[in-house]
Amino acid sequence: LGSSLQDALKKLVGAGRIDERTVTEVVKDIQRALLQADVNVKLVMQMSSHIKERALKEEVPPGMNPREHVIKIVYHELISIVGRSADIPLKPQTIMMIGLQGSGKTTTTSKLSRYFQRKGMKPAVVCADTFRPGAYQQLKTLCDKLNVPFYGEEDNPDAVGIVERGLAELEKNDVLIVDTAGRHSLEADLIDEMEQIHKVAQPDYTLLVLDGAIGQQASEQARAFNDSVGISGVVISKLDGTAKGGGALSAVSETNSAIAFIGVGETPDDLEKFEPDRFISRLLGMGDIKSLIEKAEETLSEEDIDMEAMMRGRFTLKDMYSQLEAMNKMGPMKQIMQMLPLGGMGAKLSDDAYKVTEDKMKGYRVLMDSMTDEELLNPRLIGSARIRRISLGSGSSPDAVRDLLKYHKMMQNAMKGLRGGKFNMQKMMKKM
Ligand code: GDP
Ligand code: MG
After folding, report:
1. Domain shared by 153 and 9, yes or no
2. Is position 295 within any domain?
3. Is the domain of 309 the same as that of 263?
4. Which of 233, 238, 167, 252 is nearest to 202 (CA)?
5. Which of 144, 151, 375, 391 is least surrounded by CB atoms within 10 angstroms?
6. How far is the CA of 233 from the centre of ligand 2 (A)?
């Protein structure tokens, strides 16, 4: 998802104003990216129509460029889905784990035990998985390692009875976690069993564990469990891999539930409290967007542009040229201007000024080769006689020379504007 959404957002960098066509195009890319991350189709359609509407209607706030603005909108839409994190209180309670086989229930049970232990509570675990061979041993081993009281009955298929007896036996502990069996798919007997266990356990909290890599089935699973026993929170497991958790996001949206924790590894310590910000940054690949900006920052180093000299007011044709070169390294001029939140500079350069194409750069180079050092350092010396000479020497038209001089003057004025603003380019770019 990261890279394609990033591509989509990059398109906005070049867009001066957000017009309908640009938004439509970017929203299409965002759709594609979210679908790739396993976000449910219906949800993607819903989100993208909100994004489109807002991007077109809302004004870009001052100090923000169109790209940042759309990122914010996308981000906001995602936050509105996963915005709250389910908070499991630190109090005596019963927690029931549900989910398909292999989703990570048992591992999460051990992680939660560890979590509550760390918070000074006394967790205990009941193994109600009578379905999978080895389930008893797996959980018992994990609990023994953590010194967590454990109840199970190996080889007894009566899951409901086990839960009843287990909860009674472990009464003295304060957080009772019931690990249940899954199935490969949503079979009627699984739902039946969950309903019966739920009736007996009367959990304060029913936690659905979803594999972070799960795709479109996530919503269906969540809905089925929610309709039968109700979901009070979601744990997304296996987010230590490449999975982005888009399916789980859909499930949360579908059931109006909230994510409590994420699993980031196989050991009991690999549990993190769900943080909406981080989850969405990951979903959007925001880390990569950040590094793109960092790269731009690097390219615009002092080596390329003598900012200090320009700030002091000396802005020669050579300065202008090397600045254009440096900026071309980063991308088209207009793109750079869009990245700089400078009302001043943007306003001083006309739309034409942004069109510094490679061809134009070559033309400037040729013209500058026909100038003397004196002229390069002090373009004000260049009157009509010199214009004629430069034009003849370079095989260009006098208008081309005038064009270059006009451009230089515009840039110089813009630089003066920057000076007046007393800001620091490096610092400013870091802020973006
Ligand atoms: P259950 O059938 O729902 O109880 O699933 P398990 O807890 O037995 O987990 C199934 C597999 O997924 C096991 O091999 C776990 O080690 C692995 N697993 C569970 N959670 C995570 C996680 O957060 N990260 C990684 N990498 N593996 C996990
Ligand atoms: Mg299990």
Report:
1. no
2. no
3. no
4. 167
5. 144
6. 18
* Residue 279 domain flag: no
- Ligand 1 binding pocket (C-beta < 6 A) is 99, 101-107, 182, 209, 237-238, 240, 263-266, 270
pLDDT score, position 206: 96
Containing domain of residue 141, as a range?
93-274
Residue 106 vs residues 99, 113, 328: alpha-carbon distances, Å: 10, 11, 54
Q: Which residues does 288 contact at the CB level (< 8 Å), separation at least 6? A: 2, 3, 6
The structure tokens 């394609």 sit at 4
- Separation between Cα atoms, residue 398 and residue 57, nearest integer Å: 46
Helix (H, G, I), strand (E, B) or coil at 64: coil
pTM of the model: 0.65
CB atoms within 10 A of CB 424: 12
d(CA 88, CA 205): 8
Residue 256 lies in a domain: yes
Q: Are residues 211 and 177 in the same domain?
A: yes
pLDDT of residue 417 exceeding 70, the answer is: no
Dump pLDDT digits (tens) for 343-355: 334 334 445 555 5
Centre of ligand 1 to C-alpha 249, Å, is 19
- Residue numbers in the known binding site are 99-106, 179-183, 237-240
Structure tokens at 365: 């180079």
Higher pLDDT, 284 or 420: 284
Q: What is the DSSP string of 30-53?
A: HHHHHHHTT--HHHHHHHHHHHHH
Counting atoms of ligand 1 from 1, which one is nearest the CA of 270?
Answer: 23
**CA-based radius of gyration for the chain:** 31
Residue ranges of the annotated binding site for GTP are 99-106, 179-183, 237-240
Number of H helices, E strands in the chain: 21, 8
One-letter amino acid for residue 364 of the chain: Y
Strand, helix or coil for residue 141: helix
Element (H, E) at 104: none
Q: Residue 94 pairs with which residues in a beta bridge?
A: 176
- CA nearest neighbour of 15 among 71, 53, 79: 71
Domain count, the chain: 3
Q: Whose CA is nearest to atom 26 of ligand 1?
A: 265
Which structure tokens are listed for 27? 């929203």
Q: What is the Cα–Cα distance from 131 to 101, expressed in whole angstroms? A: 10
Contacts of 378 (CB under 8 A, 6+ apart): 316
